[in-house]
Amino acid sequence: MNKRVAVISAILESPLACQSDFNNIVSEYKDIVRGRMGIPFEKEGISVVSITVLGTLDEINGLTGRLGSIEHVTVKTAISKKEAICL
Question: Superkingdom of the source (predicted)?
């Protein structure tokens, strides 16, 4: 199984409107999520979330695509070129 490490960065431009959908989708991919950091910018009315994952390209792209389809969410993903060795 070819797996890669990736970092998914997301900006929630209206957190109250979209964080429930965002969290539900991330929880569906809990098997590939290795870490998550969220930083609220209360004055600005946005939140920034960084999710580190280890998964196949299909899993990573699936998560990225689903998160990016949420209204008020902007997503970018950086995927390692090197495949991870998974035993």
Answer: Bacteria
Find all residues with CB under 8 Å of 29, minimum gap 6, and list them: 53, 55, 59, 62, 63
Domain 3-84 class, CATH top level = alpha beta
Tokens, residue 20: 């429930």
Instruction: Give the model's confidence band at 87: pLDDT under 50 very low, under 70 low, under 90 confident, else very high.
Output: low
Per-residue pLDDT reduced to its tens digit, 33-81 = 999 999 999 999 999 999 999 999 999 999 999 999 999 999 999 999 9
Q: Domain segments of the chain: what residues? A: 3-84
Alpha-carbon gap, residue 56 to 59, rounded angstroms: 5
How far is residue 70's CA from residue 72's CA, in Å, rounded to a whole number? 6
Give how far Cα 2 sits from Cα of 5, 15, 20, 47, 85, Å.
11, 34, 31, 32, 8
